[in-house]
Amino acid sequence: MSLAPRSARRRTVVAWAVLTVALALTFLLAGTWGAAVLPLWAGSLWALRRVVRSQADLPDDRLDERQVAERDRTYLYAYQGLATVALVVLFAFAIAADRTTITYDHLSGAMWLVLGLSLGLPSAVLAWTAPDAAVDDDVVAGA
Amino acid sequence: MPKRTAPDLHNRLAVLRAERGWSRQDLADAVGVNPQTIGYLERGDYNPSLVLALQIAGRFGLPVEAVFSLEPFRPLSEQVYGGGASPGAGLSGGPG
Question: How far A54 CA lies from chain B's nearest CA (Å)?
């Protein structure tokens, strides 16, 4: 099954990214009110996986060799992105701990940010970077 | 460490497929890959594993070097008839 068109994929990535940040910020600033954003964020994650046909999450035996290579490449970039964000969060906590008290809401916001990214980043990288499929007249003509 | 770049791999997939009247879907089904992967191969955007290259060549009943090459293939018309058009000869200039 082919991936969705690139423009649709990129719109979905932007929506997911905005909702992931909104989820973390809501838990950080408004405590348990963050749960109100959770269904929206879960919906965006579902849509994100749908536009890439879950290719970033399928095991080897459900993909061909090109798709496996593509999936592995997306995980490399997703790992680098996630590690960077996690480090920034850790440094922010380390610096903030000197000046203020770290509360449960702070930890909750950070946890949701890292959790949200870890669940969606591989699909987001794939959705953003995969080229559009070439127009294949043969598929239509041969159908 | 020097940056490693894969050499260009040329192929005749599109021509061979057209000769046989196969769609990308047909070839993809025959070798067990996604149809998009055939498109990637034809455009040279993805280099197949040796196993996949052998499977594809086997489907065409040809040796793998007749389907894939590190050197650009000569056009089939040139190989069959030799020489080809004289230098400078364009598409125009035929009987009007």
Answer: 14
